[in-house]
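pls read this stuff:
=====
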Amino acid sequence: MPLRRAIGTALLAAVVSVLAPAVVSVPAAADDGTDAGPMIGIGIQPLGIAEGPDGTLYVSDYDWSGGISVYPPGETQPSRTIRTGRSPSSLAVTPDGTLYVTQADESGQAQIGVVAPGADEAALAIKVTSGHHWLTVGPDGSLYVANPSEGSLSVVLQGEAWIKRTIQAGPNPVEVAVAVDGTIYATNELEGTVTVVPAGAPAPSHTIDIGAKAHPHGIAAASDGTVYVANILTDDVAVIQPGGTAVARRIPVGTAPQEVVAAPDGTVYVTNSLDDTVSVIQAGASAVSMTVPTGDDPGRMVARADGTVVVVNRRGRSLTVIPAASGTAAPAPTGASSAEAAAEAAPQGVAGTSDGGTPGPSLPAVAAGTAAVLLAGAATLVAVLRRRRVKNIAGRPSSAWTFE
């Protein structure tokens, strides 16, 4: 293994020399011999990520001042910054190029900002309830908004700036996935269930039990209609077959799996937030095929049209890119030199930060929740993550933290 690691490190160093200054650090190989790819430091506090129909990449800055960095295809520096409301988080882009962003107004009230194709600011805002709202775009271009405090899902038609209809879901829905046939799936984290709404239906048809102690969070529908659910506390992914009414099988992954995406070829990627890794599951498989190291605290991802997957490393203030159908990370065609992170945001030894640049914004906040409430704030999340990193995972409490 030492020889393999040495070869891998040498190859990665060669890649870095070609793509500098976008790549700012080359992490060591993982303990299992898998070569880790270079991290890409960025000068913002990354949280949300989405790809436009033309391949443009959007990354939200969760700092209070807000903003969305825009990376044209193939560019290594952002071409512009879209002005938003406060603390933009979740992002979604419709096929016509309309960009939606979860943000807050000056008083901290949640809203959905609407950015017209090519615009430089979120000029319109859709009023929503308090709390954090995950955004998803369905195959027909409609926007789906999870409303945890209401136990519902809002539907906005493509390009519009008002809610067309509302669908009742389970308690505390946190994320939504829409299958190719239009079936809607929503994870109800605190109840441990998934709500299923047939295409065009005004109400759910049934609920799938994932497990009261699993705390299902991220959810994705693959191209064949199979649904994958990341369960934070049971360290696995529940698989639901198309039209299924129960969990077909469970796939063990890393520690505290949080987000899941399905690439165009059906490959599934899962961020393990406490392992700093991504588990890769081939289409139809019953086990993880490989594990890819990432930066510190991997969260949201986007599966791009070319099959590559971009991972946001929240505490690492960086991006990791996993090539299509590959098990090793590689430099992304996006990124900028990272600002010097504050002491709390970038502890010693965190890959994906640089020494130069203007000091960056404050540490990311990833909404955390217990029992029946969601708590937001960077300090809270960092404290939680640090406690959980040193805690014996086998002794994790039955109450869960809900991450934004």
